[in-house]
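look at this one:
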Amino acid sequence: KAAAKRESAQADWHDLRVKLAMLAAAYEVSEDDDEVDRRVAEVCERVERPEVSEFIEASRPEVAVAALCRRWNFPVEVERWLEMADEAMEHYGFIPPQDGEDDEDDPEDPSTLRSAAPGRRRPPDTG
């Protein structure tokens, strides 16, 4: 059931997933901050072009990412780029976690640490 929810969310956010994958590729191949800025700006501009946007919408994510990597001279590491896109989408709540569990139970995520409920009090010291 969790996998089906995740797949449905990935389909709903198809274009974002492909765009994030391409941004991941741009980031990973860049050697310094200036190059990151330049490549990311180029990707953002390119994915908004009508012909690219239509291509992304009409293609499976794997096909779109592979073709755009070839076209824009990025390494064709489709699984890696889509995995990085999924991680970002998961982080920002666009898709549910892959393990199907709620983030509330993730002990490594400091935003989910909960203090004791205000209604819980220590029993009175009768000793």
